Each structure stands twice: as C-alpha cells, then as structure tokens.
Amino acid sequence: MEEISILGSGTMGHSIALSAAWAGQTVKVYGINEQDLETANNGLANKLGVMVDNDLFDEADAKRIKDSIHFSTSLEETVEGATFIIEVIPEVLELKKEMYAKLEKLVSEDVVIASNTSGFMPSLLSEDMIHPNRFVVTHFWNPGHLIPLVEVVKGSKTDEKTVQRAMQVIADMNKKPILLQKELPGFIGNRLQYALFREAQALLDSGAASKEDIDAAVTYSIGRRLPVTGPLMTADMGGLDVFSAISNYLFEDLATDQRSGKILSELAADGNLGDKSGKGFYDWEPAVSRKLNAERERTLIHFLKNDLQALGEGE
C-alpha cells in the first residue's frame, strides 16, 4: 500500500483519513494549528461514535482507526516518507499552488500529489509544477467517510502511472473510483447534480410547484431508483426508443439558464444560506437540522452497509 499523507484537517480531510485508516492504512494528517487539530479530533471521535452506534464496527476497531491517524502541525513531518499526498485545503487557487510549490521542495518526484478539489481543473492546478505528470485530482464526496464515490481526474500532463496509482489508492480504501478521461468543469458528479438543480430552480421560479413537491418528486421517484441504476442504465431498462422519443420533445423545453435562478440568488444575497445560517429554501431550526442530518447519515450508512456486504460477497 501507498504511504498516505493528507494536507488539511477539516471535515473532508479527517473524513478521508478515517476511510483510509478503516481500510487498514496508517495516515498522517496536517493541520495549520492546534485548534484545527482539536476540531478534527472532535469531529473524528463523533464520526467514529456514530459508526459504532450503527454497527459498522465495534469499539476496538474504532480505537484502532483512531490510533492509525496521526495529526501534526508540521508539514515536513506530515509528508516525510509519504508516497501519496492528498491535498484538502480551501478552494483558493493561489493557496493550492503555494502548497504544491512547497511540496515539490520536500518530496521526491515519484510521490503522487493529488487534490480533493471539487471544481478546479487539474491542468490549471498543476501548471506551475516542476513535475505535473505526478499530479491528479481525487475528488471525494461529502461526507467523505460514508460516500463511496471518488472521481479521479487526469490533467493534460498526468501520466498513466499516476492515474493507476490513484485508482488503486481509492480502491484500497474500499471506495468506488471512477475516471474522467477529459477535463471538464464540475467533473461528472457535479455536472449531473447541477443539471437537476438547475431544472429544480426553474420549476420553483416559474411557480410550477412548491419546493416541497419538487423535492418529493425526486425523493419519492427517481431518487428511489438511482441507488441501483444510473441514468443510462435506467434508460436501457425503460427502453431506448421511449427515452429517445421523450428526449426529442422534452429537451427543447428544459431549463437552459446560465446563472442561478431568481429565488436562489435573492436568498443568497440576503444571507439566507440554508442549514448553516438557519434559513434558506427551508427554515432550519436547530432541532430540524439535527433531525434531518441524522436521518441522512442513517440512510447513507444503510447504503454503505449494502456496499460492504456486496464487497465481501465478491471476494
């Protein structure tokens, strides 16, 4: 296995570390100060507690996982001996480029440097690197310890060995790696997610339906199928003649907006940002927030258990 170091101890950073440690790896995690590391340790303990409560593993495994994750405020100590580095720092281009410049002075050219960016193109991120061939994007989805998917995105100068090492690292974490052969904004998952979100905004802005019914149309229909069949397989199962005919008359009427919808723009401008501010499309009282976040977590754990069972049966 690769020796993994993670740069960034925030929610995604320590969640990725949890996934690697759960799979039996020892991981080093870098945080900028002791307060960040304390927050990360608390977050890690909370996640481990929830996973124990939901029978993903027992207390002994939780202790093993925790003991396999080593936090540090020293970048040099964190990357010493690493063969695969995952950068999970804020989505600020210059910050990321500064980090890569530091790393290239600290590690040999055969060490893979990966980014968890959800939006920046790998060729842009690596354009100032001395060895851009060893750079790749590994985009984990939040919550990183519960969502299996990781998008591996190669840049124009990423070599095949780097891609294969990234795919193997993800597989060794018991995650599901998918490869984007061509750089595109939003990669695969966010392009699909935001196509749905654009249509949802258009329906709401037009007054076609309430927010509750728009959400229900997903959670009580296509959302029930999507855990089993993606859009292309769903079309195969429904009949491509049918899906082609519907596409031909429906596509011309679908939303093509190039900017955020009216209601979303107004909410964001007024500081109504959703769960984190207490109000968005919906009202987020603390009790409501706790209930819905816990419900989502339980649902993700349910599917994760199914994934782990299928993985065990396949061995």
Rg over C-alpha atoms, rounded to the nearest angstrom? 21 Å
Give the CA-CA distance, first to last residue: 18 Å
Number-wise, the strands total 8
Largest sheet: 8 strands, mixed
What topology, given as strand order, has the largest sheet?
Answer: 3-2-1-4-5-6-7-8
Oligomer: single chain
Q: Which residues sit in consecutive blocks of at least 5 with pLDDT less than 50?
A: none
Question: Which structural class fits the helix and strand makeup?
Answer: alpha/beta
**Strand portion:** 5-15%
Coarse morphology = globular
Q: Helicity, in percent?
A: 40-55%
Please provide the ordered H/E string of secondary-structure elements. EHEHHEHEHEHEEHEHHHHHH
Helical stretch count? 13
Topology:
Elements: E1 4-7, H1 11-22, E2 27-30, H2 34-53, H3 59-67, E3 69-72, H4 75-79, E4 84-87, H5 93-106, E5 112-115, H6 122-125, E6 135-140, E7 149-154, H7 160-172, E8 176-180, H8 189-206, H9 211-225, H10 231-238, H11 240-250, H12 262-269, H13 286-314
Parallel strand pairs: 1-2, 1-4, 2-3, 4-5, 5-6, 7-8
Antiparallel strand pairs: 6-7
Helix pairs in contact: 1-2
